[in-house]
Design goal:
single chain, 228 residues, Pectate Lyase C-like, seven-stranded mixed sheet, 17% helix
């Protein structure tokens, strides 16, 4: 019998509760559910409740990568097992919900992020499974890879390639913008509007996305010293 997979929408994303059984069977059931409802899951932020399953770093990391193949961001893992909880925290995943952002492992400020009153500066590449949820502006010096996610209450600026999911003005700020040296996100949202996927470009260029007449549009982003 196929293990149960229960799905519930909550404030933080999709809460998926996994039933009992051999972990290989449970993981297969989850991936089958995702594949069968690909359009529903695409681009979602996932909170997995694995209950009593004991998962090590290799197992949880593999699952995160498999979910990223479906354009899913694993944001949090809930568990009754202290081992699984510690593993999730080690991988930078949240282990509690109803909180502002994941419980990241402590990192030196010059490698991770510098947080100010209204902005967050991140000095590293965001890889698949990484998630940033911040109420103000977010600036990333590095790339945002597919499977990574940025949710910001204000603007999002990426000094690199933006190929993950980005949501600026997440609390309803329609004046928010998204800027990147290569603007090729898997999904781009500003306030409550979602951008259509742009055609592939042979030559990437700096671009800025913003709302115009209720639609997300993108135009060339003039960098300092390159206004002409």
């Amino acid at each position: 019998m196929r293990p149960t997979v229960q799905i519930k929408g909550i404030r933080e994303g999709l809460l998926v509760t996994l039933g009992e059984g051999m972990w290989s069977d449970v993981q297969t059931a989850l991936l089958q559910e995702v594949a069968e409802k690909a359009s529903f899951f695409r681009g979602a932020k996932l909170i997995l409740d694995v209950e009593n399953h004991i998962l090590n770093a290799a197992t949880l990391g593999k699952l995160r990568d498999l979910l990223a193949d479906f354009d899913l961001s694993l944001w949090a893992v809930l568990s009754h097992s202290p081992t699984t909880e510690q593993t999730a925290q080690m991988l930078g995943l949240a282990t509690r919900i109803h909180q502002g952002k994941p419980e990241d492992s402590p990192e030196p400020a010059n490698e991770a992020g510098l947080e100010g009153a209204d902005g967050l500066l991140v000095r590293r590449t965001l890889r698949s499974g990484n998630s940033i949820d911040f109420p103000g502006h977010v600036t990333v010096i590095g790339d945002v890879n597919p499977g990574a996610e940025i949710i910001a209450g204000g603007d999002v600026v990426v000094w690199g390639r933006l190929r993950g999911l980005v949501h600026a003005g997440a609390e309803g700020d329609t004046s928010a913008v998204v800027c990147a040296l290569d603007l090729s996100p898997t999904q781009l949202r500003i306030a409550g509007e979602i951008a259509l996927t742009p055609p592939d470009r042979k030559q990437p260029r700096p671009e800025k996305a913003f709302l115009r007449d209720g639609q997300v549009v993108a135009e060339a982003w003039s960098l300092p010293g390159n206004e002409n």
